[in-house]
């Protein structure tokens, strides 16, 4: 019937609404920040609700040495799986084929030394594979060949000496940082967009081995890498957007002038992010580019000859992120007004470990007026009243975010040594003369016949907390004239609070406000869910009542119609009988009249 279908549809709607407002139950030892995600720490792999599609487990007390079908058969509904620090040593062949919806697999910080050729059979849906920090030494040829849909592969922080053969042709991102790879296999048919070769045994890059023209992100460097022998490859990076060059603390990566000139040309075309870590520059020209489109520059632990700094200029008009941490000469160049131009687009500035003693507010207003994040950590800051107090004030007002605030400490004056800048009291308290204390006078009169004494005793009033005790009244009777004396003894205790030397920054109010806001938001969501559910139930009740009334009305209408017809037929038959009786009576009457007339 129609009303039964309507009830079924409404009930299905109620079920959908209820399921959307009531998320799946979070397993024990897990944190479910989103209804479809579960992050578990400790314990075994739990039984998951089928509505959970992303699962992460880490730091299990008992190691899980093998990922087999007994485990993966209970995780068939997952789209993302992350296994971190669970003691895994082997992935059983064909175990992942049971998870036919899996797109992302991350196995990190385990002890998998070998990947077999049958490990990833029937895993065509996998698009991201992250195997970092697993001590992998051997990858059999053809291991990644079944992964026809793989786009992102990370093998960083392992012990590989070479790359496996037959990488997926659709691969876009390859990360093999921190391995023992000495030479690259031929990869001309793979159009990579991102390639990380940093910190291997590779000495140079050859354009004939790698398709460099398709690269957007590239990381080069390490103890054995030589940029001078890679000049041909560097000049082929016309489309690169993010370039990272890394050396080591013991052996900085030397960047010659011709490489710097090539990088400068890239900044005018496509390069917008440049990262130089533990490098050695021959000139400062890379920081003086009026037509540069560079938006992010990180030159950390980078050295430059002193003779180049004196006459150098820093001009980066489009820069938004600048990180000069560990590069004191570059930081000095930046903080010298006549050596740098205003950077109106700069938002993030990091100058930690640069020996900086002060950062003036006038410099911020004139050179970097739009800065939002500042890092001054690990510097010997001089926390004076008129030099650094503006930073805590800006932070309180929400105009500035101080990064690494716990390690942004004062070095002077001595009484503020190792105290965080945001809590240091940099301005002393100036004592002010308190106003005179008002006094009142009580009059005590002693009546002696013939004499009258009036004693005046001052009583001091104070705003501090007072405690009165031991108040006694003594009446002395003598044979002569009577003298009545009242004596009051009071003790006053002033509870003074110790005023801090300066202002301190506390985030408790911000945290409390956020907690109240989150509590109000969750309460509003529960109230909204309850309101929607009540509304749906009321609609269902109204629909059922309307349908029932309509059905009852139709039934009664049919019953009344039959009764009316039967009573109408009965009335008709009675009228016919009456009419026949009347006709007979009329006929008899007429006959009687006729006989009378005849008589």
Radius of gyration: 45 Å
Inertia-based shape: globular
Unreliable parts = 439-513, 575-583, 585-599
Helix content: 25-40%
End-to-end Cα distance: 80 Å
Mean pLDDT: 78
CATH architecture of the domain at 183-354: Alpha-Beta Horseshoe
Range of strand content: 15-25%
| Secondary structure category | alpha/beta
Number of strands: 29
Q: What's the CATH first level of the domain at 183-354?
A: Alpha Beta
Q: Main beta sheet, described? A: 17 strands, mixed
Give the CATH topology of the domain at 183-354.
Leucine-rich repeat, LRR (right-handed beta-alpha superhelix)
Number of helices: 9
Provide a quick synopsis of the model.
By secondary structure, the chain is α/β, with parallel strands linked by helices. It has 9 helices and 29 strands. Helix content is 26%, strand content 20%.
